[in-house]
């Protein structure tokens, strides 16, 4: 198998993956695709529909087209590879497959996914399959996706599907990374990069969701017969200040470590990194959730944690709770924007400014690389716009004081109007009409932080401008709004 196999299986049932639809699964159920164990063969097992097969199998297609299955990834992520396993499908495997992916809400209904408006991106072109084989394909996509569609041509059976990649947490649907979070959790982007030994239990079990199902669902080393100890290094999903730890030896009764030490560091290069003691050497118990808070050293923001167990043994889960600062939150928000597919990036940038020329210039400038380059690109794109672009953008802005049903940036920016009395609101509505009759476009002002009386006074003062001067003033205000919204876009 290719080197991508050492990444997370984004479609894993343990992470919440699911097969939510298939064009046909007459002979064998679509849900089998994601089962964690290898496919098996039962020589004389039949059902009332035919030979029992451990996988997903459609009937023989007698009409044009091909079969497909839609998989919701357990966590959003950037795909790096796929394994299309046709084990035991010998005379009934598909001739070829392709893979498409989309970025929607993780709980998007099937109707949304099947709608013509949903943008599916081909990440694996039509590729030949071999029967009774583990067909491995590399995938390189710069975007993070939530759903995958496996197409098989024209029909047939696939035993298992694995979709390997890098987790890209959707922080906006997980509290915007505010407050205390598990920095090590796989669903938050944490990863166990390396371990000294994992003879009995895989290292990434340490950061999987939930408590371990049994002893196999943890990290366990072989029995150490010489000096030394075992260890695992966790890359946190975000740089943060650790506030508490949980070390769970659930199910490990005769094979739990005697003691442990936890260290942490902040680094971009693991080789040669200097780890400092976070939790001193501490006695552990069998089959127990251990909690540590007061015992922890205050090391400030860190990026990696090293769990050392003495002399060996098993730990089912490691939880590293902490908080992240504004700079790191901004970095996470920017990373999200960089990984958005084109359709979603367009929608996010258009919410900041709907000037067609500005929008196309910004989309062409992706990827930006850093938040500073993004903001500089916004200024440069704005400098290329003119009156027609400004007027087009004005049309998407609601009037000051105009109520909207949806919770939008405009409603937040106009918060000063929400507490205004009826008389002030009436005056604003009348002056809005007078302004539009005089200039032919909506009154645009950067309303953030301004009271209703201030907004009203600004409007009265600008009614005396000539049309060209007022157009330039409104454009300047629009650019201020755009810059503020871009900053909001950088919220994770």
Describe the structure concisely.
With 492 residues, the chain is an alpha+beta fold. Helix content is 25%, strand content 28%.
Helix and strand topology:
Blueprint: E1 8-9, E2 18-22, E3 46-47, E4 50-51, E5 56-57, E6 67-85, E7 96-102, H1 110-114, E8 121-128, E9 134-138, E10 145-153, E11 157-158, E12 160-167, E13 181-182, E14 191-195, E15 219-220, E16 230-248, E17 259-265, E18 276-283, E19 289-292, E20 301-310, E21 314-315, E22 317-323, H2 326-339, H3 342-352, H4 356-365, H5 371-383, H6 387-394, H7 409-413, H8 415-418, H9 422-439, H10 452-462, H11 467-489
Antiparallel strand pairs: 1-12, 2-6, 3-4, 5-11, 6-9, 6-10, 6-12, 7-8, 7-10, 13-22, 14-16, 15-21, 16-19, 16-20, 16-22, 17-18, 17-20
Helix pairs in contact: 3-11, 4-5, 5-11, 6-11, 9-10
Name of the top-level CATH class of the largest domain: Mainly Beta
- Work out the count of structural domains: 3
- Categorize the overall geometry: globular
Mean pLDDT: 94
Proportion of residues in extended strands: 25-35%
Explain this structure.
This protein is of the alpha+beta class and 492 residues long. It folds into three domains: 3-167, Galactose-binding domain-like (Jelly Rolls), CATH 2.60.120.260; 175-324, Galactose-binding domain-like (Jelly Rolls, Sandwich), CATH 2.60.120; 341-489, UraD-like. Helix content is 25%, strand content 28%. The chain has helices spanning 110-114, 326-339, 342-352, 356-365, 371-383, 387-394, 409-413, 415-418, 422-439, 452-462, 467-489; strands spanning 8-9, 18-22, 46-47, 50-51, 56-57, 67-85, 96-102, 121-128, 134-138, 145-153, 157-158, 160-167, 181-182, 191-195, 219-220, 230-248, 259-265, 276-283, 289-292, 301-310, 314-315, 317-323. The strands form five sheets. Strands 1, 2, 6, 7, 8, 9, 10 and 12 form an eight-stranded antiparallel β-sheet that branches. Strands 13, 14, 16, 17, 18, 19, 20 and 22 form an eight-stranded antiparallel β-sheet that branches. Helix 3 packs across helix 11 (467-489). The chain starts with 7 loop residues before the first strand and ends with a helix.
